[in-house]
Amino acid sequence: MIQLIDTIITIFLRDLIPHNSFFEPVFSFLSLNGFSLAIWVAIIIITTIIEEIHHPGIQKRDKKFIFYFILIFCIQLITVNYVLKPLIHRPRPFQPPRDFIASSTFDHPIIPINTCPADFSFPSGHAATAFTAAFVLSYFDKKRRWFYYLIAVFISFSRIYLGCHYFFDVVFGGLIGSLITWITLKVKYPITKRV
């Protein structure tokens, strides 16, 4: 039943925006063929340059940001890609289910637009990375938090639009990335304190 609901929501969201020569390249770029971290690295570089113009010299805050970004990203990457995905074994929307009964009746309407990874689907690594990056950036740069979360939402949506993930893969990926970030910052650098 949950699978059916997830599929219906996924198809609805996937078809919400037209699939054409404008939107497909845009959402493919946001996914960067599985390497959306490059978008966040570019955002960090641009943000750092802007901060450097306003506050010359490497600040203590900048060092903490870089340390926590790398630490949290590594924890999230290991948790999602090397623990949860292999443990849950959920096939991607375009792959047949792994059990015989479901696979014998497999007639799936979701066909990927772009090249999608062949690994497991749940949770979405793109969504986890996007919300990890947005959370860390927002924690250290509150002025632009709306921008960071907007990028995270677009990257996450791109995975549904391209047919690489189900809706719940993306939602739980975002929640897991946010939770890992919150816990790590809470333990290592209490949320109530500010630099």
TrEMBL record:
InterPro entries (alphabetical): PAP2/HPO, PAP2/HPO_sf
Gene3D superfamilies named in the record: Phosphatidic acid phosphatase type 2/haloperoxidase (1.20.144.10)
Coiled-coil boundaries: none
GO molecular function: sphingosine-1-phosphate phosphatase activity
SMART domains in the record: acidPPc
Record flagged with keyword Membrane: yes
Ranges for domain Phosphatidic acid phosphatase type 2/haloperoxidase: 65-185
Keywords: Membrane, Transmembrane, Transmembrane helix
Regions crossing the membrane: 26-53, 65-84, 146-162, 168-185
Name used for this protein in its record: Phosphatidic acid phosphatase type 2/haloperoxidase domain-containing protein
